[in-house]
Specification:
An eight-stranded parallel β-barrel has the order 1-2-3-4-5-6-7-8, surrounded by seven helices. It is of the alpha/beta class. It has 13 helices and eight strands. Helix 5 (67-87) packs parallel to helix 6.
């Protein structure tokens, strides 16, 4: 299994330097991260929304070591929201945020992350959109869920992410599947120990279906985060059985992966949201994309060899 090896490399400074220095890396990274600044990303946002898609935007960068960096992350999201307001795209584009980027891992990190993310959620609401709190490794989740609960008191559309491979997720899904909630379900992309998470793909897939059934049968708004054709078909069937209309759930996929499927689902009348990341601190995000799917790794290796 290469996934755990790649995830370990995502935390290695030596591997970061090696991969960042490879001449072909930028060309490959651009497949998943199509820009470094708001100005870079505006044409992408306009193109995708013009083709009937919706977006969730992620300003990449998780290795925050100072409160000043956390403040800068907050300001980067506020700048993005201001540009979306200018473009009149608030209702088509939401934000995804990792609380680690807002200082969650620092001293007093829970309070710091909440203080930094609240202005972003407030600004997003002012332009008619929402924020979803991304899930990170299992040690951060209690803090994330507590912040999510706090934010929903004033901004009930604030979403969160749950990860099918964690044992705790079925209980989390039952708790979250309430009226007004927005929950994105993903398989999971962090290296987690066997004590807290399923390790085998077939176990993770079965857990995904169980959790998705809970969300579809609940009263909230499920967001199906998967590129797996079989799981997409299962999601459609579960939605049909639960009596859900096409606007009562959505699919989410990553920018750069299965673009034709994005358009196909949108053309069929489904809500299809593209998770689109940008920024300069791309390494951790990029490595998790390689770990999630062998085809991504093969693409990267082929590109490096062909340019060598």
């Amino acid at each position: 299994m290469l996934g755990p090896v790649i995830l370990a490399a995502s935390r290695s400074d030596r591997m970061r330097r090696l991969i960042s220095a490879a001449p072909v890396t930028k060309q490959v990274v651009d497949r998943f991260i199509p820009g470094e600044s708001v100005d870079d990303i505006v044409p992408i946002v306009q193109e995708l929304t013009g083709r009937g898609l919706e977006l969730t935007m992620d300003v990449v960068g998780e290795d925050i070591t100072t409160p000043e960096q956390a403040t800068a992350a907050r300001d980067a999201y506020l700048a993005l929201i201001d540009r979306l307001r200018e473009l009149g795209l608030g209702e088509r584009v939401e934000m995804s945020v990792k609380l680690s980027m807002f200082g969650q891992a620092l001293e007093g990190g829970h309070e710091l992350a909440l203080a930094n993310v609240r202005p972003v959620v407030e600004a997003a609401a002012a332009i008619g959109t929402t924020v979803t709190l991304d899930a990170e490794d299992h040690t951060t989740l209690d803090s994330m869920f507590a912040i999510h609960e706090e934010l929903r008191k004033d901004f009930p559309g604030t979403g969160c992410v749950i990860q099918a491979y964690l044992f705790r997720t079925e209980a989390d899904a039952r708790r979250l599947a309430e009226a007004g909630s927005r929950v994105r379900l993903v398989k999971g992309a962090y290296k987690e120990p066997a004590e807290v998470a399923y390790q085998q793909k077939h176990e993770i897939d079965k857990a995904y279906v169980r959790v998705l059934r809970t969300l579809m049968e609940g009263e909230g708004y499920p967001m199906v985060g998967s590129h797996d054709p079989r799981l997409i078909s299962i999601a459609q069937e579960l939605a049909r059985r639960a009596g859900r209309k096409p606007d009562e759930y959505e699919f989410q996929m990553l920018y750069g992966i299965r673009g034709d499927e994005h358009l196909r689902l949108a053309a069929e009348g489904h809500r299809m949201r593209v998770y689109t990341a940008y920024g300069t601190d791309w390494y951790g995000y990029f490595m998790r994309r390689l770990a999630e799917k062998p085809a991504n790794l093969r693409f990267f290796v082929r590109s490096m060899l062909s340019k060598g």
